[in-house]
Amino acid sequence: MKELINGQTIDFDIHQAGDGREISIDGLYMHKRMNGKRFKGVDVLFPLDDKENVEFRPKNTPDQIQQQIINEIQRAIKKDATKRDKLVDTIINEIERHLNENLTENNIQIIRRGAERIAKLFSKEGKIRNELIQSIDGKLEFLVTQHSKDPSEWDKRGKTSTFFIKQDLKRNRIKIGDDLEALNYGNQKRTFKK
Fold it and tell me: Is the pLDDT of residue 160 over 70?
């Protein structure tokens, strides 16, 4: 699964969330945003229930690029069917928790455990290395956790690579990526005024 976040951001949400239906794989989408040099700015909406068509943004993305991206996603999610099923179940369970529980600062451990379960699908080690919490009036808005990639992926200087998981409780989404800025802001150019 780690191939899905190599220089890219994936965002899971359930399009029918909040309409009263039971949460299931039906309507579960993976939004994949290309952040690196290769295909930068291309977004793909990939339905994990295989019932809908894959959608690209911009819509005029060349067919050759579309096919390369689809092949990359399919290789990653079909490599290990058990892991794919576990990913889908974990994401659905965590989003359902966001919808059905009034999560406050008092029960932050529930969200932390969810982040560790998700992280274990992308790395052997699921431990949280660092975190950022935003809450308003005691109600959790989001939790961003930092995790280490597998030791075999450490760079030549012995430093570990990291990835981040953002559980957005306000929007009932889970984002995963290896670039914190892209995770929060996408590929938009950010200008800061002094």
Answer: no
